[in-house]
Structure prediction request, 285 residues.
Amino acid sequence: MDNKPKSFPPQEMEQPGKEHKMTPEPEIIRDGYKGSDKLKGKVALITGGDSGIGRAVAVHFAREGADIAIVYLNEDKDAKETRQLVEKEGRKCLLISGDVGKEDFCREAVKKTVKELGKLDVLVNNAGEQHAQEDIRDITEEQLKRTFDTNIFSMFYFVKEALNHMKKGSAIINTTSVTAYHGNKLLLDYSSTKGAILTFTRTLAQMVADKGIRVNGVAPGPIWTPLIPASFDKEHVEKFGQKTLLKRAGQPSEVAPAYVYLASDDSAFTIGEVMHINGGEMVTT
Prediction:
């Protein structure tokens, strides 16, 4: 029986959103999810890993046997809670705080991961931000640059350094969005970055395939994460996700297993693809 919430209490918060302030807090891993060593002995770096989808990916990866490094901006409380969840699974968790829009920081985050955890097998480019605007004329130069810095430029920065450490069998997973396919009139700059991530994923896959490194993506639909109450007004939040075929938003716990698949050997013949986890929003790929 589907017991996921159909609506949410009206709520708003400042960017970046804080998971511990959400009502209800997102579901990170479903009861009954059993790990089976799909990522045993691997090391994964996850950007935006403090909360939402990133947190769920970190916990699922840990349950599958991986040690984790998570990169986040300044959400220290959320990051520490994620670390506790990973360590509860018996795995190591390295916290790295900084601005993914800065290439120097991204380079050093990868190097620190390799130094502290020994190697890098999986890179999950998941950090993102969005700022709703009804009119393109209200999108400031600062907002535009910030959104592109965080959402797409950071992926270039992390991959450039990660490739110095990854070996055959490694995986890169990029978080795009359903908005890359049909847009969102309130999220022009965000949707544009997600379209860029789609093309980045497909092209990078071609570039590194001969190295034995697989590149794929996940395109979530409406998922209940801190990004939502930090981006929209109370009325939008209350109705968030109700236009899907399931009449509700998804939970991070329902997205993270797709990342497990793409990070593991189960997807050995999957490359340059994007998985759609969106509650039935039909898209043309």
Remarks:
- The domain at 40-277 is CATH 3.40.50.720 (Rossmann fold).
- The CA atoms of residues 152 and 192 lie 10 Å apart.
